[in-house]
Amino acid sequence: VGAVLTFDAPPIIGVAHGLAPVGPVYTVTRAQDRVLAELDERPAFSAFAEHARPLLDDLERAAQSVFLVESAQPQSFARPASDPVEDDFLVRGFLKFDPDEGLLAVSEPIAEGTRVRFAVLSPPLARERLRRMANEVKHALGARSPRWGWYLNCAGRGEAFFGAPDHDVAFIQDVLGRFPLAGCFGGGEIAPVRGRPELSLFAGVLVAVP
């Protein structure tokens, strides 16, 4: 038994990341599948270590605090280094570390020549980006109100992160008003990035159905 959803109008999708970029833009100079060996022709772990201190004694914790972001347009970072991570960036998590060999293993394959940066969790930026995303969805709706919606949120963006329960839902309803909204927490979020579905991390994805 299956079900088919039909819409009178295409749903509107908004994405809100909560990461603040740190350090310079690097070029992946040696990599194989998900393993990064060199960034700017130096050991990849050495570059990571510069941004993960003082968490290097607990690499599991470091992997929950520092991420890698890559441009959705290969070979190019469109924004200045001071700008926040936006929807056209892909967020990758770290799976394994090999400090002795200088290697990093990430959640998705990354090709040589890709431009990447490190990023860290930022509650203030996450809050700012969430409100901005909700206003972008409201603008796209025009005079319409959502008939219903779905919100997929990273499990790390809960009360422990923001210091308040139901944080994201409260911001969405403050901008869009109250409407039937279902959702869940997850360990990865699929959202459109430059027109194609991509797996991201530490994001909130809102689907509003007019």
Task: Spell out the key features of this protein.
8-stranded antiparallel sheet; 5 helices; alpha+beta; 210 residues; 4-stranded mixed sheet; elongated
Q: What does this entry look like structurally?
A:
The chain is an alpha+beta fold and 210 residues long. Helices cover 22% and strands 40% of the residues. It contains 5 helices and 14 strands. It has helices at 44-52, 59-63, 123-141, 159-162, 167-176, and strands at residues 12-17, 19-32, 35-39, 42-43, 66-71, 89-92, 94-98, 103-106, 115-121, 148-154, 181-186, 189-193, 196-200, 203-209. The strands form 3 sheets. Strands 2, 3, 4, 5, 6, 7, 8 and 9 form an 8-stranded antiparallel β-sheet that branches. Strand 12 and strand 13 (196-200) form a beta hairpin. Helix 3 (123-141) runs parallel beside helix 5. The protein is elongated, with a radius of gyration of 18 Å. The model is unreliable at 74-86 (pLDDT under 50).
Short structural summary:
The chain is built from five helices and 14 strands.
Number of strands: 14
From the alpha carbons, calculate the radius of gyration and give it in angstroms: 18 Å
What's the overall geometry?
A: elongated
Which structural class is indicated by helix and strand composition? alpha+beta
Approximately how much beta-strand content do the residues carry? Answer: 35-45%
Overall average residue pLDDT:
84
Topology:
Elements: E1 12-17, E2 19-32, E3 35-39, E4 42-43, H1 44-52, H2 59-63, E5 66-71, E6 89-92, E7 94-98, E8 103-106, E9 115-121, H3 123-141, E10 148-154, H4 159-162, H5 167-176, E11 181-186, E12 189-193, E13 196-200, E14 203-209
Parallel strand pairs: 10-11
Antiparallel strand pairs: 1-14, 2-3, 2-9, 3-4, 3-8, 5-6, 5-9, 7-8, 10-14, 12-13
Helix pairs in contact: 3-5
